Amino acid sequence: MILLGIGSFFAAGSSGPVTALVASLIHPSLRASGFGTLTLAYTFLGMALGPFVIGVVADQAGLLRALQLAPLVGLMTVAVLSVGRRRYPTSLRTLAALTGPVSIQGDPRQVDL
């Protein structure tokens, strides 16, 4: 249970990077729609679907087992964000080719576009 608490504490850590990706990869005229879609995804996948899935697993395997399996979602999130991190420079180049130069203020990684 201690590990579950620690994992829950750090679970919101993906929120910032994902929001930054949306801000930097979506054309400025579509950012509001992008942020809205991101908010819907967080709401439906995390806040609505998450407790439902944990409840279904708890009904089948018991509450303790369901809570033990819950951190696996975090591992899947890390895997998806790792793929996104590798594809990010390519996405920036594609965006620059379509819309012109892209500047990212404060980005410690020097991505030559």
UniProtKB/TrEMBL annotation:
Q: Which domain of life is it from?
A: Bacteria
| Presence of keyword Ligase | no
- What are the record keywords, sorted? Membrane, Transmembrane, Transmembrane helix
Membrane-crossing residues?
A: 6-26, 38-57, 63-83
Protein name (database record): Major Facilitator Superfamily protein
What is the scientific name of the source organism? Rhodococcus tukisamuensis
